[in-house]
Write a structure and sequence with these properties.
Elements lengths: L3 H4 L10 E3 L9 H25 L11 H7 L4 H22 L7 E3 L1 H15 L2 H8 L4 H8 L4 H8 L15 H40 L1 H6 L20 H19 L3 H19 L8 H6 L3 H7 L15 H6 L6 H41 L1
């Protein structure tokens, strides 16, 4: 048992001091970068898909034939582009306003953060032997019996009782430090991102659904977004300015505050959310699309919502949780295929009729001009 002291050795308390975190880029603060990065990602991704559209690359992966866009959409690309620019100007302006006067984040030495977290974990671990004893299991004997085979387990079940170590101070043990490193580097950020996703997904689902349930809201605000029946990437955030403010921007402000995301975490979260929004509206279905495989909420899922017969379904943007829970997921996939095909046939028929009408008008004009010349 001589090794008991070494195995359960504790860490001395480091001297901690806060200092300003150095920016990722020397010419712009992290706060400002977190605001402009999603817009930069949007511009790059939008331009990429615009090139695919323009040069008919990967046309076999398009949800709609290219010609449908001109015939079915009720807004020109130039009008859409202007609204998208306004969206991003609003987003950047509000972000800069909310961050006005904020300096760089104050951070402590990593050893201090790990030590503080490990101390908290050490206090929480006191519950383990209490719980085991309540079940009639002698935590002390269990710890001693397993010490030779699994030191981590022995240390875990012992809590911070003095029998687990020859050190009677309150400093964290090696196990506490290991758990603290895992919590700081993986667990806590994962929980923060998950909470932020829950906030954004919930806010957008219910406000989006409200815009469809309330006819006044739909007519005055949300109908603008649905002028795009055949959506394309850079038109992803084409919307009324009120929708921009209350549905999109406000959702991310709430998520950032509730999940307590740092500026650098906001960079990642905002950029990934932007890529997801672009992907939903890009009009392409690629076999390697990660969003499609994660939970089924991909380009097809959202494109169906943009059709006149799918307006009351598929309100979610990031997950399918609320749609599945509240019964607003479109489930008739075969029916959707038939409806898509019917729309294509009708669009093609109208196109032929329009071409015939144009041809007839041209012939009539040619005949009339010939008579005038005679």
């Amino acid at each position: 048992m001589a090794s008991n002291t070494t195995i359960f050795s504790t860490s001395s308390t480091p001297i901690c001091a806060l200092s300003s975190q150095q920016s990722l880029l020397p010419w712009v603060s992290d706060n400002v970068l977190a605001i402009i990065l999603p817009t930069t990602v949007y511009a790059v991704a939008g331009a990429f898909f615009h090139l695919l559209d323009s040069y008919r690359i990967f046309s076999n992966h398009r949800i709609h034939p290219s010609d449908e866009e001109l015939k079915r959409n009720h807004v020109t690309r130039w009008e859409c582009f202007q609204a998208v620019v306004r969206y991003h100007l609003m987003q950047i302006s509000i972000g800069l306003l909310l961050n006005y006067g904020n300096g760089p984040a104050l951070v402590g030495d990593e050893a201090c953060k790990i030590h503080d977290t490990a101390s908290a974990i050490r206090n929480v671990r006191n519950v383990v032997p209490m719980f085991l004893n309540a079940l009639g299991i002698d935590a002390k004997q269990l710890s001693i019996a397993t010490l030779g085979t699994s030191t981590k387990f022995a240390q875990f079940v012992s809590g911070s009782d003095s029998y687990a170590s020859n050190n009677n101070n309150n400093n964290p043990t090696a196990l506490d430090l290991s758990l603290a490193k895992f919590a700081i580097k993986i667990l806590i950020p994962l929980l923060q991102y998950t909470l932020a996703l829950i906030v954004v997904d919930t806010w957008i689902y219910f406000t989006h659904r409200l815009c469809h349930v309330n006819h006044t809201l739909y007519r005055l605000v949300h109908a603008q977004h649905h002028r795009l029946y055949v959506s394309y990437a850079y038109g992803a955030v084409y919307a009324h300015w009120l929708e921009t403010l209350f549905l999109d921007i406000l959702s991310f402000i709430l998520a950032t505050e509730i999940a307590q995301l740092s500026a650098r975490q906001s960079m990642l979260f905002g950029s990934l959310a932007t890529i997801k929004t672009i992907s939903d509206h890009c009009g392409y279905v690629f076999p390697w699309d990660p969003f499609r495989w994660v939970n089924g909420n991909g380009a097809v899922f959202h494109d169906l919502h943009h059709q006149s017969w799918g307006l009351k379904y598929n309100f979610s943007t990031y997950t399918v949780f609320w749609d599945n829970l509240l019964g607003t997921t479109w489930a008739d996939h075969e029916g959707a295929k038939k409806r898509y095909q019917r729309v294509r046939d009708m669009t093609a028929k109208r196109s032929v009729m329009k071409d015939v009408a144009v041809s007839e008008r041209c012939e009539e004009q040619a005949v009339a001009e010939g008579k005038r010349e005679e």
